[in-house]
Structures are given as C-alpha cells and as structure tokens.
Amino acid sequence: MPTYAYACKDCSHAFEIVQSFTDSSLTSCPECQGTLRKKFNSVGVVFKGSGFYRTDSRDAKGSTVSPAPAPTPAATPAPAAASAS
Question: Count of CB atoms within 10 A of residue 42's CB?
Fold first, then answer.
C-alpha cells in the first residue's frame, strides 16, 4: 500500500499515512481539525544509464526488426547444354 504525505493549511502540521488506493483522501488535520492538503513527492523510480531511449536499441539503419532470410532457391534442372554441330 502506498504512503501519502499530508500537510495542514492552518497549523502546518505535516505527516505521512499508509492508505489503500481505494481509501478516500483525508480532509481534517488530526492536530487542529484544520484543512489538509495532499503533498506530492517526486517519483520513486529513476532510470539511469544507457538503454532507456527509443533509439538505443536500434541498429544504424533505424530498424528494430532484422530482415527475413532470403529464400533458398529450389533445385531446378540445369539448362541443357547446346551441342555444337
């Protein structure tokens, strides 16, 4: 379950609480019964290093799919050699 941070608009009391996604937001401060506001923090996931850009996994031609192998020619009879007369 996620942890949400709240701060009171009246007394500046700040606290965190663990709530389910389906729980409604808190509206009154436990200290002074004032109005609460939900604080938004930075995202907890940070991607570092190479490999996170759209073009990183592509080859020089810009295609991500390797070309299909050329079909092997079927065995066909060789043309008859013309005889010299």
Answer: 6
